[in-house]
From TrEMBL:
Protein name in the entry: Guanine nucleotide exchange factor MSS4-like
Gene it is expressed from: strat-L
Domain of life per record: Eukaryota
GO biological process assignments: post-Golgi vesicle-mediated transport; protein transport; small GTPase-mediated signal transduction
Pfam families per the UniProt record, alphabetical: Mss4
One cellular component term from this protein's GO annotations in UniProt: membrane
InterPro entries: Mss4 (IPR007515)
Amino acid sequence: MADVSSLVSEGQNSLMVKCVHCDSRVLSPQSATFLSSSHPLPKPTQPKGQASTNTEDLSEWWVVDDMFTFDNIGFSHSVGTTKYLVCADCERGPVGWHDNTTRKSYVALARVKHA
Ligand SMILES: [Zn+2]
């Protein structure tokens, strides 16, 4: 992915995190921690008539320790111990995932915009 140094300040998000589709605010500045780690996330659009889910490996994430840190976030379906995060306003995504066991949430830098 592109150089993220302009987005990260002292390990946290220096800018507001917003939905790419409707501009809804997801996170305030300095509320999440940057993590570089490869993890699969389902693609926003899935081919019709296919049983399995198409995923892509993304490697840059905003880690949110507490759900209440989010300004706006919605959940889609759960898969095992994972819930997928979608925009609370337009319900598009997934923009990230939530681990039910650790209660941490991971927002993909590639699926949101920064302003
Ligand atoms: Zn939205």
